[in-house]
C-alpha cells in the first residue's frame, strides 16, 4: 500500500533531492519519509539501497536532512554556516563506510559497507552536501521563490536564474496563481465590478 504515502520529489542532485523529502517547510509541511520504510524506498531509488531502517536511523536521517537544509540555506544567502548543522553533516560524513565504484559501462555507483546500513548511505549524502555547499560543483545554491517552500536547490542552469526548486510543482503553481490573478483582473475589467 505505497499510495498512502506522499510521492517523492526526486532531483538530479543527491543532497537537495534528500532535503526535498520534506516540502512546503514555510507552509503546510509535507513529510515524504514519514516511516522508516519510506526512507528505505527513497534510498533505493537514489542508488543507495539499504537492508533495513530503524526508527532511530530515520531520526538520524531527518537530523542530517534539516542540517543540510540549514547549511544550504545559509550558503544560498551568503550567510555564516550554522555551526550545529555543520557538525551534524561532518559527523554523518565521517560515520559511514561507502565506496565509489565504477561499473563496466563507465557509471559511478555507490557500494555501501558490508551491512548496507543507513549510516553508510547518509555518509554519501553528507559528502554530496559538502561538495555542493563548498562550491566545488558547477552550479549555484539558491532558494525557491515560492513563499511556502523556500527550499534550497542547486541551480545548474546556464544563466543561474532558476527561480523554483521544481518546475513541475512550485513553478507550475506560481504560474497558475499568476494566470488566475490575471483572469480575475480581466473579468473585473469586463464586468465593471469593483476590485
Ligand atoms: Zn519550491
Automatic annotation (TrEMBL):
<dbReference type="InterPro" id="IPR021005">
    <property type="entry name" value="Znf_CGNR"/>
</dbReference>
<dbReference type="InterPro" id="IPR023286">
    <property type="entry name" value="ABATE_dom_sf"/>
</dbReference>
<feature type="domain" description="Zinc finger CGNR">
    <location>
        <begin position="141"/>
        <end position="181"/>
    </location>
</feature>
<protein>
    <recommendedName>
        <fullName>Zinc finger CGNR domain-containing protein</fullName>
    </recommendedName>
</protein>
<dbReference type="InterPro" id="IPR010852">
    <property type="entry name" value="ABATE"/>
</dbReference>
<dbReference type="Pfam" id="PF11706">
    <property type="entry name" value="zf-CGNR"/>
</dbReference>
<dbReference type="Pfam" id="PF07336">
    <property type="entry name" value="ABATE"/>
</dbReference>
Amino acid at each position: 500500500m505505497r499510495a498512502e504515502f506522499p510521492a517523492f520529489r526526486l532531483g538530479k542532485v543527491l543532497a537537495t533531492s534528500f532535503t526535498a523529502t520534506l516540502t512546503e517547510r514555510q507552509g503546510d509541511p509535507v513529510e515524504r519519509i514519514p516511516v522508516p520504510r519510506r526512507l528505505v524506498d527513497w534510498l533505493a531509488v537514489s542508488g543507495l539501497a539499504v537492508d533495513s531502517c530503524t526508527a532511530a536511523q530515520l531520526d538520524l536521517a531527518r537530523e542530517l536532512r534539516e542540517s543540510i537544509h540549514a547549511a544550504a540555506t545559509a550558503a544560498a544567502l551568503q550567510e555564516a554556516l550554522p555551526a550545529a548543522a555543520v557538525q551534524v553533516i561532518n559527523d554523518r560524513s565521517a560515520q559511514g563506510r561507502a565506496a565509489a565504484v565504477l561499473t563496466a559501462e563507465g557509471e559511478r555507483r555507490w557500494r555501501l559497507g558490508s551491512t548496507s546500513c543507513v549510516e553508510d548511505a547518509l555518509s554519501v549524502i553528507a559528502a554530496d552536501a559538502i561538495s555542493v555547499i563548498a562550491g566545488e560543483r558547477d552550479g549555484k545554491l539558491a532558494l525557491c521563490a515560492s513563499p511556502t517552500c523556500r527550499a534550497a536547490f542547486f541551480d545548474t542552469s546556464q544563466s543561474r536564474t532558476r527561480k523554483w526548486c521544481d518546475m513541475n510543482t512550485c513553478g507550475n503553481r506560481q504560474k497558475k496563481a499568476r494566470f488566475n490573478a490575471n483572469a480575475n483582473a480581466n473579468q473585473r475589467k469586463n464586468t465593471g465590478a469593483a476590485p
